[in-house]
């Protein structure tokens, strides 16, 4: 069994969105709206709070050419987090009676920012996938999702992977590099509920897909053809996101909803990956 350690003393109701951005690991504390970081040169030195929002903060991407600035999927829209504060940008949906929020998000090679969503009560089919383009245009890309997670891109940017967590599905799409249009949706992996539900995703430099298995207490690596390749068992039952910092695997987790959380539930975990990660791509803004 691979040795897995607890990275910091923090325990989160719902830690998420771990990303390798330059010389920092960043992650989010969704329900408390916090953006946290640790230096990649000393990951065990502890987490520092970079920002605190008054809405749930689901995920961020660094912004190209603007050090210390992040594009965020937060609340029911997009926001810019700068060293001077938070600036709301756009809302992809009109105000509705059904409470919902943004979920996992990532930038692609062209600087487009892709973000999923979910109903707060996790109602089936109420989630979506949105795309914020560098020019500011917001597009609804997919509907009829439940909890849109991932998304993640192949190293060449021509394939997107997206998980719908409660369904146990990971799908793959062809991506037009010029326009961001998706096509050729295909099943990539279908997981047995006993194995855990696919939550956050990342892709390593060899094109292998890593998935946090919420409720399964593990991370699963898949070959580019979707074949399961390697499973890493974890001491936390609800892993939520995965991030490869060079050749180190970072996994966030949550303890929310557990009647009897164990000592590692809600922790940020660290282990050797024996695979090289890719830094988070930057979002671009005109």
Give a written overview of the molecule.
The strands form six sheets. The chain has a four-stranded antiparallel β-sheet, with no helix packed on it. A four-stranded antiparallel β-sheet has the order 2-3-4-5, with no helix packed on it. A four-stranded antiparallel β-sheet has the order 6-7-8-9, with no helix packed on it. It has no helices and 24 strands. Helices cover 0% and strands 51% of the residues. The protein is globular and about 45 Å long. It has strands at residues 5-6, 15-21, 24-29, 34-39, 48-52, 57-62, 70-74, 77-82, 85-90, 100-107, 113-119, 127-132, 138-145, 148-153, 159-164, 169-175, 182-190, 197-203, 209-214, 218-222, 228-233, 239-245, 248-253, 269-272. It has 286 residues and is mainly beta. It has a single domain (5-272), classed as 6 Propeller (Neuraminidase).
Average of per-residue pLDDT values: 96
Return residue spans where pLDDT drops below 50 for at least 5 consecutive residues: none
Number of E-state strands: 24
The appropriate CATH architecture is 6 Propeller
Helix content: under 10%
Assign the CATH superfamily.
TolB, C-terminal domain
* Whole-angstrom Rg: 17 Å
- Domain module count: 1
Distance between the termini: 47 Å
In order across it, which strands form the biggest sheet?
1-24-23-22
The general outline is: globular
Strand content: over 45%
CATH class: Mainly Beta
Assembly status? single chain
The biggest beta sheet reads:
4 strands, antiparallel
Under CATH, the topology is which? Neuraminidase
Order of helices and strands: EEEEEEEEEEEEEEEEEEEEEEEE
Work out the helix count.
0
Structural category is mainly beta
């Amino acid at each position: 069994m691979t040795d897995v350690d607890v990275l910091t003393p923090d325990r989160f109701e719902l830690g998420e969105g771990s990303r390798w951005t330059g010389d920092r690991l960043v992650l989010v504390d969704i329900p408390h709206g916090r953006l946290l970081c640790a230096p990649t040169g000393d990951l065990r030195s502890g987490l520092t709070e970079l920002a605190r929002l008054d809405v749930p903060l689901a995920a961020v991407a660094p912004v190209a050419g603007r050090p210390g600035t992040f594009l965020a999927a937060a609340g029911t829209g997009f926001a810019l987090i700068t060293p001077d504060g938070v600036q709301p940008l756009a809302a992809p949906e009109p105000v509705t009676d059904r409470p919902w929020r943004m979920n996992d998000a990532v930038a692609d090679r062209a600087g487009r920012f892709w973000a999923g969503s979910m109903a707060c009560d996790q109602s089936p089919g109420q989630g979506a996938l949105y795309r914020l383009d560098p020019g500011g245009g917001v597009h609804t890309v997919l509907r009829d999702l439940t909890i849109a997670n991932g998304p993640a891109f192949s190293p060449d940017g021509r394939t997107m992977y997206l998980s719908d967590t409660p369904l146990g599905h990971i799908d793959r799409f062809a991506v037009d590099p010029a326009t961001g249009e998706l096509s050729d949706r295909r099943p990539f992996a279908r997981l047995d509920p006993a194995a855990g539900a696919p939550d956050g995703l990342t892709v390593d430099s060899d094109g292998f897909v890593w998935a946090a298995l919420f409720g399964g207490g593990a991370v699963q690596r898949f070959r580019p053809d979707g074949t399961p390749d390697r499973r890493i068992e974890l001491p936390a039952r609800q892993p939520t996101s995965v991030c490869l910092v060079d050749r180190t695997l970072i996994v966030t987790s949550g303890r929310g909803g557990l009647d009897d959380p164990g000592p590692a539930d809600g922790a940020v975990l660290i282990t050797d990956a024996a695979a090289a990660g890719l830094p988070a791509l930057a979002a671009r803004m005109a």
